[in-house]
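Re: the 374-residue chain
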Amino acid sequence: MPTSLPLVFEAPRRAMPPRHLADLDEAGRADAVAVLGLPPFRGKQLANQYYGRLIADPHKMTDLPAAVREQVAEALFPKLLDAVAEIECDAGETRKMLWRAIDGTTFESVLMRYPQRNTVCISSQAGCGMACPFCATGQGGLQRNLSTAEILEQVRAAAVELRDRDREGITPAARGGRLSNIVFMGMGEPLANYNRVVAAVRRIIAPPPNGFGISARSVTVSSVGLAPAIRRLADERLGVTLALSLHAPDDELRDTLVPVNSRWKVSEALDAARYYANVTGRRVSVEYALIRDINDQPWRGDLLGKRLHGALGPLAHVNVIPLNPTPGSQWDASPKAAEREFVKRVRARGVSCTVRDTRGREIAAACGQLAAQS
């Protein structure tokens, strides 16, 4: 099994941001504080401040001696991201953040509050190299991979936003609460930035002081079908949910909608998804953006249901996503009647299928709309 992705899917070689505490595992933190001449317990202390108390400024860490705070800040807590802009909709329930990294790279994350959960959709790359024509991110191309710390800073910022909003004591409907769900469905193909994404996932699901302590079952990693990387992720046994962005059940159409299909065909993507389901015991979410007169024909619903029933059986669930508009696109969402018929055809083959509740469309924060434009 290949241990890395083909060069064509790798990010351009650009300088990564400086080392941050969130880039380090427990052993790395111990080494880092030793270099600073600090006792070993300081590594655990710093991690508990970052992951447990959500503090990223050593000057605010009251259990850290004042004499070493500046030294620790310079060595382990460089400022990685600036919030350039934020915009919200759904009566404040959906908020999109535009981030700028220290090299000027921009990317976005989206925080969505629901009655029973709070979800942040995070980016793993600045831009995307998969070039799916119905996705604004893919049409913008790939700038670079994000570091593990840049990924985790999106999570921490969302958790802080929810915590602080909850402290305001405003009406219950507008309160924040605790961050409960993470979806790697923002900008980029997560499995094309494999090592940093897996490191981020490990720190998301580990309890403090080694991570944010979010349940692995509440973390979703998406992929357009990089089959070797999906199998590799299964072998990590992290227990997270895999979301396979399929969008077509046949190779002829998928070659156009998801260009990576020219390397790993539908059958290979589904074989990898079956391997993931078998190894982890977790249901695979199959994402399907429904496009008027392109992939919404009843026969494609039949074929999708048939292929998923054969490949995954009860461990498949289809998320039908009404296509979200993107600048310059001539494509549109399918009519509701076509959508209902498509869902009916998939279900008739014994496969669970629902239509996703789209959030943030009017602020270009919905699936396929992220373009990091201020």
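Residues 1-8, 170-174 have pLDDT under 50 and may be disordered.
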